[in-house]
Amino acid sequence: MDLSSELIHALLPLYMATVLGASALVIGVVEGVAEATALIVKLFSGVLSDFFRRRKPLVLLGYGLAALSKLVFPLAPTLGWIIAARLADRVGKGIRGAPRDALIADIAPAGARGRSFGLRQALDTVGAVCGPLLALAGMAYFAGDFRAVFWIAVVPALLAVVLIIVGVDEPAGLRGGRRTPLRLAELKRFAPGFWFVVAIAGVLTLARFSEAFIVLRALNVGFSIASAPLVMAAMAIVYALTAYPAGVAADRGRAPRLLGFGLAALAASDLILARADGQMMVLAGAALWGLHLGLTQGLLAALIAAAAPSDLRGTAFGVFNLICGIALLIASVLAGWLWDAYGPQATFYAGAMFTSVAALGLWLRRRDLALLSRSI
């Protein structure tokens, strides 16, 4: 599914800006609302997966909705249809996200939770590498016809649904009667360490607005429309190569260092992208963005799984993604507004500022993070 989604994602900002005439602010609002919707929906799907004690039906529903949305992109006659398809795709992602992560936590071998989430991130990112590359090949083959390339994304999306149906099962121990519906009092069962991880992730998300702005930055410094998806491929390659080793390091208690290096990589990426005056600088910034993702995203998921009660894991991932979703909406709208009002440099300098705030919080609570990392 990531192959399909990233093919669309690599081209959509270009399609909206050059064919449909959308401004950076409009693209920021669309991307922010779409990604925030996905993360917010994860709260409800996570709660439902805990309530019904079933993960797979929600995972299948989410992947199925995302696959259906891929049929709309090549057929959409207006920007409104594109926005609707983008939202439907992200709702599908939201429905499947928390139950899928909870399922991984349920079946991960003892002492291997970090590398299990690292492997998931790495495999996701294989699709994120191949998606932009397939977009490049499609744009070359179809002579820049966006709609023809969008049709390619339908095939892997449908294959993903088939794989869920025939190749995924959940452990028998998870099944059983329904648990008590979630009550507000149950949120008190989440330890302070859980809320600390959520807070750090929220501030990081403010710094890490939609990757659509990296694609727009590539166009801004001289990439052609056909070659701009290269920056997404560069980001995804580094992400894929670092996610699993980072997961192994997390299992060995190195979470504080991983988060510290991840923050440094994101700050460096923002500064390079702000000052970029050529293609190589944008590629370097995208690669550092991918390094940040590889070092932090699987680790944050493993920390959430470690800090949450086992019977509330779906809810925990839902709460985590709700906070990140709100932060992403704010970040992407702010990024689009800064881009239109003050230029792309202001967008990336703001990202570096929020990264510095997250780094300060991490330093102040470094002992708590060290204790939490021992339970991954």
Describe what this molecule looks like in 3D.
The chain has 376 residues and is mostly helical. The protein has one domain (2-168, 186-373): Up-down Bundle (Growth Hormone, Chain: A), CATH 1.20.1250. 79% of the residues lie in helices and 0% in strands. It contains 15 helices and no strands. The chain has helices spanning 2-19, 24-52, 56-69, 79-107, 113-141, 146-152, 154-167, 192-207, 212-220, 230-251, 255-275, 279-307, 313-342, 344-364, 366-373. Helix 2 (24-52) runs antiparallel to helix 13 (313-342) and helix 10 packs parallel to helix 12. The protein is globular. The mean pLDDT is 84.
Short synopsis of the structure:
It is built from 15 helices and no strands. It has 376 residues and is mainly α. It has a single domain, classed as MFS general substrate transporter like domains (Growth Hormone, Chain: A).
Put simply, the count of helices is: 15
For the record, the count of structural domains works out to 1
CATH class: Mainly Alpha
Percent of residues in helices comes to over 70%
Rg computed from alpha carbons, rounded to a whole number of angstroms: 20 Å
Structural class: mainly alpha
Largest sheet: none
